[in-house]
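Blinded run. Sample ID left blank on purpose so nobody reads anything into the name before looking at the predicted structure. Input follows.
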Amino acid sequence: MPYLTEHAVRLEPPSKYERFRRENGKFGEGINAIWGITADGKVELQALRFDAKRYSVEDVREWLKEHGYENATIEPAEEEFSTGVDTDAVEREALLIEAGDYPDKGVTITEESLQQMAESGVGAPVIVEHRPTLVLGWISELWRKGKQLWGKLRLKPHANQLIEESGVRGLSVGLARTENGYQLREVSLTATPRVTNAQIFGTEPPQLYIVCANNAIGDDAMEIRNIAVEQQPNVEQLRAELKAAQEHAAQLEARVKEMAQQLEFAQSQLVRHAVQRIVEKYQREGKFTPAAAERATQLLLHLAQAYPQHIIQFSEDTATELPEVVRAAIALFEALPTHPNKPAVRTVSLDDAALAERKQELAAALRAKGFTFAASGELPDELVQIAANLKEVQS
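Blinded prediction complete.
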């Protein structure tokens, strides 16, 4: 896209860079540099801008050849602006600015300042809200009338129609500081002028909002930049605090996860203990054989996946308001038949003396019953042991 006031020469694609910085007069009067800054902070010459009022396209071509950029492409300034030739343009006169003090901007405009603007501001663009993305036209003529600076705005036909239809006629000028005063850089159409009568083509002279710039950077922008520099340490501190808070949050999250795992394990152990209590209860009542106890344990553990707290209540003999499936399990266990428990058998061990004594007693008792013995006349040790056990159980 051609620029209105400058011939443009692109040396590097802008997509390589994250930020851009302009340096006016870097390579001579009217030869301005556009620096590209990469993500890692590297600064490169991205483009050149040549003042179209000072240099023709041929002048630019010769300069590029002398400085080793002969292969670069030149984008000439827009023809209608550089020459002012546009038969369809609509010209309107407007009061641009008045001499006086503007303390909120730290600016004092004198009649000499107005004269400097009139001498250097011809060709400045007419844009919208100080945004160069929409160019309405340019200033084709400037003159000072006492303490007022007047200009002839040469508007594109569609821009003039837009102004007429929208009714937006407020004006604002953009100035650049110079060594000797101020230079008019642009005139903007605005819907919010500083005073209500700041209207383009108005019946009363407008008092205009002033944007003062230093090397194309306005006072507001400079102030914002200074604030940003001053606040940089605070921003870095906030970033450090945010990082520490994120690390602390990660530690808390890990701790919560660990505690959740511990709680889950404790809950599972509590439920397993409750299941064991239920099974042991019915085993004591003789309702569960070992095989039935194993099956009942599996059933209760399966139910515990959906009703852990109710299974714990079940183990505590709290059968009120239990889920139907748990009540059904209770009813099933209660309906099982009772199996008698086998009496416990204790085995008695005898030493040699006790065994010999038992042999004599048992032999005498057997003979009295009419039993006879082998030639040895002695009873087997195993038979004596069985008899001793039986006697111990009876006792």
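Unblinding after everyone has recorded impressions. Confidence is low (pLDDT under 50) at residues 80-85, 195-219.
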